[in-house]
TrEMBL record:
This is Xaa-Pro peptidase family protein. Residues 147-347 form the Peptidase M24 domain. InterPro entries: Creatin/AminoP/Spt16_N, Creatinase/aminopeptidase-like, Creatinase_N, Pept_M24, Pept_M24_MAP, Peptidase_M24B. Gene3D superfamilies: Creatinase/methionine aminopeptidase superfamily (3.90.230.10), Creatinase/prolidase N-terminal domain (3.40.350.10). The lineage of its organism: Bacteria, Pseudomonadati, Pseudomonadota, Alphaproteobacteria, Rhodobacterales. One of its GO terms (molecular function) is aminopeptidase activity. It comes from the Bacteria. Residues 9-138 form the Creatinase N-terminal domain. It holds the Pfam family Creatinase_N.
Length: 363
């Protein structure tokens, strides 16, 4: 993205600040700041904040990092050194940016940095950046969706690579390594490779390890990586040899839950209605107690970001929102099944980014 695109985002943020009644947005190094400026400074225990007011913006910056960050931004800097501390520089920044009756804080900011800022703004009303920058990040533009679509293509290739590695006697880690190598071959950085074989599949966030795949094991394959600032996330199922007893029935229920959730997606409905559509299918089949997590989460510059597709979310879906649909059934001591798509809300429904069938792969 060019500089003009980030200037447009800053302008949109200022409009949103007026709508939200916010005078100052304070961002820590992280996803909000990367979305707004295209980069994120080095983060450590030293306070480093991007401060955006209605007419000005700049960085509270440790002096030892300032020259490096100046290569990425022409914003003004209020620098401070370790022998003096940040208090005076922060006071200068606030004075330069104008009166602050309400401040919007990055949710990912360190607590000590947030308290430092709030102590410098006595009496200011505070809220989180979910209502400012986060509000703008909810709906992806065409460039962002293209990046997510490319990441989904790569994730499909990584699923094919891990499937080729499945056979009795190999470890979960060996299968995960095949996926990781496929991601790297496409220029993506692996973020997670959850391979849960047999009874390990009943743990939704199993830690991939040295468990050996055996004939008749069902295998949860949940993988994702990052390229060009955006993430992939896909879960498919494989079986080593033969399907376990009862597997086909449960797989059909989970797939039907995915289809029901996807069919429910359209602008104007609540996120909780998508969760309800998936959950109703699984509950009706008698497995409601074994669907133990939300139906999905947003995907973008973070692997988990809003909107969250939960039973209590009143977020109204709009075109450009991107999130996973990943219902699952986890039967302790037997196996788990999760099937996951990334959906983009369109004007009339949704687009699925993966082109890989959800049918179980039998190795």
């Amino acid at each position: 993205m060019g500089a003009g695109a980030f200037e447009a985002r800053l302008a949109r943020l200022r409009v949103r600040m007026v709508e939200a009644g916010v005078d100052l947005v304070a961002l820590a190094p992280g996803a909000h700041l990367r979305w707004l400026t295209g980069f994120s400074p080095f983060a450590d225990e030293r306070p480093c904040l991007a401060l955006v007011g209605h007419r000005g913006a700049g960085f509270l910056m440790p002096v030892l990092n300032a020259d490096d960050v100046r290569q990425h931004s022409d914003w003004p800097f209020w620098t401070w050194a370790d022998d003096a501390g940040p208090a005076d520089a922060l006071a200068e920044a606030i004075a330069a940016l104008g009166p602050v009756a309400a401040v919007s804080l990055d949710e990912a900011m360190r607590a000590d940095h947030a308290l430092l800022l709030l102590e410098a703004l006595p009496g200011a009303r505070r809220s989180f950046a979910a209502e400012t920058v986060g509000h703008l990040r909810l709906c992806k533009d065409a460039t962002e969706i293209a990046a997510l679509r490319e990441n989904a293509r790569i994730a499909d290739l990584a699923q094919a690579a891990l499937r080729a590695a499945i056979r009795p006697g190999v470890t979960e880690r060996a299968v995960a390594d095949a996926a990781r190598a496929a991601f790297r071959a496409e220029g993506a950085v692996p973020e997670f490779t959850i391979i849960g074989t047999g009874t390990n599949g009943a743990f939704p966030h199993h830690h991939t390890g040295e468990t050996v795949l055996a004939h008749g094991d069902a295998i949860v394959c949940d993988i994702g990586a990052k390229k060009d600032g955006y993430y992939s996330d896909i879960t498919r199922m494989a079986c080593c040899g033969a399907l376990p007893e009862g597997y086909a029935e449960v797989h059909a229920v989970v797939n039907a839950a995915v289809e029901a959730a996807l069919a429910a997606i359209r602008p104007g409905i609540r996120a909780r209605d998508v969760d309800a559509a998936a959950r109703a299918v699984i509950t009706a089949a008698g497995y409601g107690d074994y669907f133990t997590h939300r139906t999905g989460h947003g995907v973008g510059q973070e692997i988990h970001e809003p909107p969250y597709i939960t039973g209590v979310s009143d977020v109204i879906l709009a075109p450009g929102m991107v999130f996973t649909v990943e219902p699952g059934i986890y039967l302790p001591g037997r196996f788990g099944i999760r099937l996951e798509e990334i959906a983009v809300v369109t004007e009339t429904g949704c687009e699925i980014l993966s082109t890989l069938s959800r049918a179980v792969h039998v190795a």
